[in-house]
Amino acid sequence: MIRRHPFISLFLLLLLALLGWVWHERVNLQAFPDIIAAYTAKEYCSCRYVQNYPAEYCLGYVKQYVPTSAFNDNPERSEVTASGLGRTHTARWMGDRQGCRLNP
Amino acid sequence: MVRGLLCVALLFVTVAAHADTWPDKDWAQGTALTGPAVDALTAYAFPTRDDATRQGIRTDALLVIRDGEVIYERYAAPTTASTPHLTWSISKSLMATVLGVAYGENRFKLSDPAARFYPPMKQHPKVTMADLLHWASGLDWQEDYEYAPLKSSVVAMLYTRGRADMAEFAADTEAAAAPGQAFRYSSGDSNILSATLKGMLGHKAYMSYPWDALFKPLGIHNATWETDADETFVASSYAYLTARDLARIGLLMARDGRWGAQQLLPEEWVAFNRQPFDNYKVGQDEAVPGGQWWLNREVQGAPRPWPDAPADTFAALGHWGQALFVMPDEHLVIVRYGDDRDGSYRHNELLKRVLAAVQP
Predict the structure, then answer these.
(1) Which of B168, B203, B207, B224 is the best residue to mutate to test the A interface, defined by the most A CB atoms within 10 Å of its own CB?
(2) Is any Cβ of chain A less than 8 angstroms from the Cβ of B238?
(3) Which residues pair with A101 in a beta bridge?
(4) Which of these, B75, B78, B83, B84, lies nearest to B46 by C-alpha position?
């Protein structure tokens, strides 16, 4: 098998290694896509409602290499929602002392 | 006669204690610094700013206090004197200072196991309060913000798997070394400390304790300290203070825990903060760890982390260039807030220029 199909054998070996790594890192990999939406919602909320910076500045402040697909800042509710990599998260301003927090 | 002498001595001590300048509602203004060295400082800290590329040195605020008076203060828009700025990991040193008040109230001993106040630490029954304060819990923590996001314990704690209960997320980390034996910088250790304080006080008292114990006595009125969903203060990352208010913490530390006539922190607590951790190895971090503070000390024959600053300098440091420097012998407190997104800013260069600017 290995002598007759060296490339397929190598490919299968690499695939097996990749699957092993995915299994090993399954918890981290599952959580990973949440980072961009959660980071953007939380840090924008704090930028805007705790540090009181202008909205335009805060959009630049939270910008990352990975783009967000949707973003909404609701000033009436002091609530910020961001989407990216297929996940959506919301952070809300709780008050002067407690600032912003991601919704569970 | 003896009583008379005693009275005179007491009067003298009282006068001496009050000879120091302390901020009241606001800071006293000293004579503002001028001259070419001051221009060189401003040129270094505040180059033309580009908020689109976010490249280069991006100082948001720079405040220098000498003998309790403001001698240099500058902000870059949109930050102002009234902006409660994100301090990132300066929060760790702030939590240590809050814990210092609790220590003065005999609420815990350094040798107490953390599990005594925070049951999830029963998984690691030998980890003491001192170990956590030294970032030496021995837990297998991955502290990396931007370069290894998949494996980063910090990113997982703040934004994904840990965000509902950060201290528990940290406590659930496996042990990698025996407690107290090795330094490993960990935001998890700091949040476990925050949870132990909650255990000492109970939830209700804990929620106002940073204000009651520290901020109000210092005249700090605009502090924000964000919590996780379990209402534990995010001691690793999320305290917000104006530059002027953070300088109050610096002055408290510069004066060995004393604020006016009140010894707010025990002197021995501040001495612990400023004592290098014995098992730290040179090069493990950018400065020498004490008790949740950073020290400019020579250890194991290596040069000081900031060679142009005096050896008694100690600091609270945070991501993106946040810094509070305390130089007790020079009577200086320096607050630097920033938004540095690349590596161009250097603490040593800033300190060198501040020290040149304050020379008479």
Answers:
(1) B224
(2) yes
(3) A92
(4) B75
In B, which residues are within 8 Å of A48 by CB distance? none
Assess if residue B309 is contained within a domain: yes
DSSP-derived secondary structure letter, B140: -
Cβ(B195)–Cβ(B170) under 8 Å? no
CA–CA gap between residue B63 and residue A4 (Å, rounded)? 73
- Alpha-helix runs per DSSP H in chain A: 6-24, 26-31, 34-45, 55-61
pLDDT of B9 reads: 57
Number of domains into which chain B is organized: 1
The rounded distance, in Å, linking the Cα atoms of B174 and B171 is: 8
pLDDT < 70 stretches in chain A: none
Give the tens place of pLDDT for each residue, B84-136. Answer: 999 999 999 999 999 999 999 999 999 999 999 999 999 999 999 999 999 99
Cα of A1 to nearest chain B Cα, Å = 36
Single-letter residue type at B65: I
Of the partner residues B85, B150, B158, the one whose CB lies closest to the CB of residue A32: B150
The answer to whether the CB of B79 falls within 8 A of the CB of B87 is: no
- Within 10 A of A8 (CB to CB), how many other CB atoms are there? 11
Strand-pair partners of A74? A79
Assess A65–B contact: CB distance below 8 Å, yes or no: no
Q: Could you tell me where the DSSP H helices lie in B289-335?
A: none
Is B54 within the bounds of a domain? Answer: yes
User: What is the ipTM metric for this complex?
Assistant: 0.92
Residue holding tokens 């109970």? B202
Q: Touching check for B60 and chain A: CB below 8 Å?
A: no
The residues with which A87 forms a beta bridge, in sequence order, are A84
Q: Say how far apart CA B188 and CA B89 lie, in whole Å.
A: 12
- Angle in degrees, 0-180, between the axes of helices B36-45 and B347-358, rounded to the nearest 10: 160
CB contact under 8 A, B156 and A52: no
Mean pLDDT, rounded, for B233-247: 98
Residue A8 tokens read as: 């397929």
Which domain covers residue B320, as residue numbers? 22-358
Q: Give contacts of B159 with chain A, Cβ < 8 Å.
A: 34-35, 38-39, 42, 102
pTM of the model: 0.92
Spatial separation of the C-alpha atoms in residues B329 and B255, rounded to whole Å:
10
Q: Using CB atoms, which residue from A28, A53, A101 is nearest to B150? A: A28
The domain ranges of chain A are 1-31, 34-102
B12 contact A CB<8A: no
pLDDT (tens digit, 9 = 90+) per residue, B66-82?
999 999 999 999 999 99
Model confidence at B254, in pLDDT bands (50, 70, 90)? Answer: very high
Instruction: Read off the CATH number of the domain in which B220 is found.
Output: 3.40.710.10
